[in-house]
Design a protein that fits this description.
It is a single chain. The protein has helices at 19-67, 74-123, 133-159. By secondary structure, the protein is mainly alpha-helical. The protein has one domain. 5% of the residues are buried.
Length: 168
Amino acid sequence: MLDSPSMFDNQYNQAQPGTLRAIDALRDILAGVKRDVARSREVLNGAFGKIAARFARVHAIAVAAEGRKHGLSDEALRALREVTDGLTIELQFEDSLSQLLDHIQGKVEAMGVALTETRAMMSSAPAGEAEPVGPALEVLARTVKSIQMAADAAVADRAFGHGSVELF
């Protein structure tokens, strides 16, 4: 169990030689994940631009139809419905993906903060004294537990239909 104090007894109070390198490697991995999330947001924003262009097209069709006295033909209405249905699905997907990226970014940032705190604790021990491995591991354990609890809550919300946005 991660939050058990006995896990951090005195046998763990000496850091292994590669501990700080491992923490730095994990921070590098998290930086890569953060870049991936940023790239995903760029792609998502590009897709959103295309959706907006399609909405402009639908709007132009509707404005043109209003300008005519006769209204829309069944064929035109069917075409508008198809475009609108597709846009609705695309917007719901964009919204869901944006929320997922927000959750991922929050987790990555929380892990980055925990690693920074852990590294600071590990490297701040005066020369000749044992490095504070136990307290450093407690910081990581609390962060992991917090992320797991948030993930469990998100899963529970999705199971009960909470957290989703109905756009139309």
